[in-house]
Design goal:
Elements: E1 2-8, H1 15-28, E2 33-36, E3 39-40, E4 43-46, E5 49-52, H2 53-61, H3 68-71, E6 74-75, H4 80-85, H5 93-107, E7 110-114, H6 129-136, E8 140-145, H7 149-164, E9 169-177, H8 185-194, E10 200-205, H9 208-211, H10 215-222, E11 225-228, E12 239-242, H11 247-251, E13 256-263, H12 267-279, E14 286-293, H13 300-308, E15 312-315, H14 320-331, H15 339-352, H16 355-364
Parallel strand pairs: 1-7, 1-8, 2-7, 3-6, 8-9, 9-10, 12-13, 13-14, 14-15
Antiparallel strand pairs: 4-5, 11-15
Length: about 375
């Protein structure tokens, strides 16, 4: 069985995006493909069992047959790390990973192994990405994001940690690159990485839809009370603005299709945003929706104006800072319900990633089942 370990240089670099595209590319090449996330940090309960949310995503999108327990053998819920350090975790975690991996070896032609964060993540429980990749005998491909110096520096740093554990870094992928502004950047990155013996396997251009959630995902993520759904919950937000200043100043900071987070008792700010949306004021951006924080309900006249303007709005009990943090998490995650986003990812990765180079890398390090 061929396999490859997909790691990243840090959080929110687009590893899940690349995983979706690589899985799709392997399947387009007619390969029976499996997926495993040996160590997961974002645990959900699905089919009555705990599993990492990326494993759930892959199983659903690609209709994979393996049980979630095999695709997500070790997950780290809240409090797990402290319990491990204190010696109260008695499970043989490496054995669970080896057992799950061995089952794939009998069933699939190629296996995509998705890591968690950078090469050192998981070291606190003895299961860093570098250690797990070495344990499974898999080459690593590192995902970073746009720029020149920073991605190369980060990739080289992670390469050193992988190699310290005996893992060969077989290539790198750079995500979220503004190719329209810098069309020669891919060539520069390829040359810069080649100096460190790291092949560039692809450069993925930045797309707003791949970074931003739909209004439906916002609603699901913040668990708010819907004041008004607006015309279309499948609209993708263009950005986020915080409504914590006087109305005339706030309106200057609302970008196109912005989701505005504002305390529910700021009737003046809310009314100004709604009015600007209704008249489509060119000087005030155009809000796509409102998240009203603090559990405060605006006056009925303001609520009626929101509905009359057909503007999305939801009320949440948390304060503005907490809600902004929740929505930031939504900005960088891909969910099962993001059908349009998932299809965009598949097409983008197929066009810009050298999938055959990735397959060559996996073939070069083929291991016997």
């Amino acid at each position: 069985m061929r396999h490859i370990y997909l790691a990243a240089t840090g959080q929110n670099r687009g590893k899940t995006t690349v995983s979706l595209g690589v899985m799709d590319g392997f399947q387009r090449r007619g390969l029976s493909t499996g997926f495993i996330k040996p160590v997961g940090q974002r645990t959900v309960i699905e089919e009555g069992v705990p599993a990492d949310e990326d494993a759930v995503l892959m199983k659903t999108v690609f209709k994979l047959e393996e049980p979630l327990g095999q695709m997500s053998p070790v997950h780290i819920p809240r409090g797990f790390t402290q319990a491990y350090i204190e010696g109260t975790v008695l499970e043989d975690l490496p054995a669970k990973i080896r057992s799950a991996h061995a089952q794939f070896a009998r069933e699939r032609e190629i296996l995509l192994i998705e890591g968690t964060g950078h090469a050192g993540v998981g070291a606190v429980i003895g299961l860093s990405n570098a250690v797990v990749a070495a344990m499974l005998g898999s080459p690593a491909v590192i995902v970073s994001e746009g720029g020149v110096g920073r991605p190369i520096d980060e990739i080289v740093l992670n390469k050193a940690l992988f190699e310290r554990s005996g893992v060969r870094v077989a290539g790198a992928i750079v995500n979220k690159v503004d190719l329209a502004a810098k069309p020669d950047l891919a060539r520069t990155l390829e040359r810069g990485l080649a100096r460190h013996d790291i092949p560039l396997l692809g450069v993925l251009p930045y797309r707003p839809i791949l970074s931003n959630p739909t209004l439906a995902m916002v609603l699901e993520g913040v668990h708010g009370e819907t004041i008004h759904p607006g015309p279309d919950l499948d609209q993708v937000i263009g950005g986020v603005a915080i409504g914590a200043m006087e109305p005339e100043h706030m309106l200057q900071r609302i970008g196109e299709r912005s989701l505005v987070i504002v305390p529910g008792d700021r009737d003046d700010v809310i009314a100004a945003i709604v009015h600007a949306h209704r008249i489509k004021s060119p000087a005030a951006g155009d809000a796509l929706g409102l998240v009203l924080t603090g559990g405060y309900r605006p006056r009925q006249a303001v609520i009626d104006a929101i509905r009359h303007a057909d503007l999305f709005a939801t009320i949440v009990p948390e304060d503005t800072y907490a809600v902004a943090s929740e929505i930031h998490d939504l900005l960088v995650k891909t969910h099962v319900a993001d059908r349009e986003k998932i299809e965009e990812i598949k097409g983008l990765v197929w066009e810009h990633l050298f999938i055959d180079r990735v397959l060559e890398v996996a073939t070069e390090f083929e291991v016997a089942a």
